[in-house]
Amino acid sequence: MIKKKLLRNGKKIDKFLINFLKKQKSSLLLKPMKYGVISGGKKIRSTIILDVGKLLKIKEKKLLNICAAVECIHSYSLIHDDLPCMDDDKIRRGKPTTHIKFGEASAVLAGSSLLTLAFEIIADKKYNINSQSKNEIIRSLAKCSGHTGIAGGQELDLKFENKKKSINQIIDMQKKKTGRLFNFCLYAVSVIANKKTKEKKFLSNLGEEIGLLFQLTDDFLDIKGSRKKTGKPVKKDNKKGKSTLLKLMGEKKAYMFATNLKRKILLKLEKHGKNAKELIDTIKFILERKY
Ligand code: GRG
Q1: Are 35 and 101 within 8 A, CB to CB?
Q2: Ligand 1 atom with minimal separation from the 43 CA
Q3: Domain residues for 6?
Q4: What's the CA-to-centroid distance between 178 and ligand 1, angstroms?
């Protein structure tokens, strides 16, 4: 069921991106950009956006720009993450990484162009939401992507290699590196739904916790998963001396931590009753996933 939902959403977002790019002038970077963002990845972040749309009763049409922008930011971060100066990976989503296929310079430029494309997609004139919401969404996406979000988290991740770090330092790094984009996913829908500040805060914190859960599973998959299923090399974290909760706590305690976190997240969704069903299914998948 969930796999079908992910595939269905993935196709919708790919179609949106293909159409959006078709309307733009051509460039040499289009090919590596498309390679990095289209037909690949689980599109879990888009799925969460659409699930939260169901929770807050927002029409899908109003959310597709947000989904496409988030996938652009996510793919940009992966393209840069795979570069030799960062994690130096050769396989991603079951195929050669963008820099292996197109060269390092083109991968850097295609990644940067996906980052800016995300903002173009939200600022698009045809995206029919009120301009105050648009502005709020753009500001939040910028904050989640920059030095206090994804990029800052990545810097901490690299600086933490082969260092002894505390649980709180690792959680802070993972919440920035992975959690902030999930935070944005829930926040953006709450802005479109015209929610009050308190509810927007509640949902964005929840998003960050979902992101942390997602990162914890990513760490488990590095030791227990298969390259075939994840589409990327496994057993790399230890070799690189990555600071993870799994390494610090050990497998059993880290799994307990993740299970408790999942329980805490699900408990917070109880007040939404059956409207939260799709989101709950996706959260359960996040911890059980094999890819
Ligand atoms: C160079 C300014 C600058 C920024 C780069 C590289 C970077 C910022 C951030 C990296 C962030 C990163 C790779 C976080 C890990 C998050 C994670 C678990 C990614 C895998 O996500 P999935 O499983 O991937 O959703 P798919 O392939 O399914 O889309």
Answers
A1: yes
A2: 29
A3: 2-288
A4: 7
Task: Output the CA 124–ligand 1 centroid distance in Å.
Answer: 25
| Per-residue model confidence as pLDDT tens for the chain (291 residues) | 899 999 999 999 999 999 999 999 999 999 999 999 998 899 999 999 999 999 999 999 999 999 999 999 999 999 999 999 999 999 999 999 999 999 999 999 999 999 999 999 999 999 999 999 999 999 999 999 999 999 999 999 999 999 999 999 999 999 999 999 999 999 999 999 999 999 999 999 999 999 999 999 999 999 999 999 999 999 999 999 999 999 999 999 999 999 999 999 999 999 999 999 999 999 999 999 999
Residues in the chain: 291
**pTM for the whole structure:** 0.97
Cα 130 to averaged position of ligand 1 atoms, centre (Å): 30
Number of domains in the chain: 1
Nearest to 172 by CA among 223, 211, 206: 211
CATH code assigned at 50: 1.10.600.10
Contact (CB, 8 A) for 158 and 177: no
Pick from 99, 150, 212 the residue to mutate for probing ligand 1's pocket: most ligand atoms within 8 Å of its CB. Answer: 150
Pocket test for ligand 1, best of 177, 185, 219, 288 (most atoms within 8 A of CB): 177
Residue located via tokens 């430029």: 109
Rounded CA-CA distance 199/6 in Å is 27
- Quote the tokens at residue 115: 């980052």
Q: Is the dihedral of CA 72, 74, 76, 78 positive or negative?
A: negative
CA of 69 to the centre of ligand 1 (A): 14
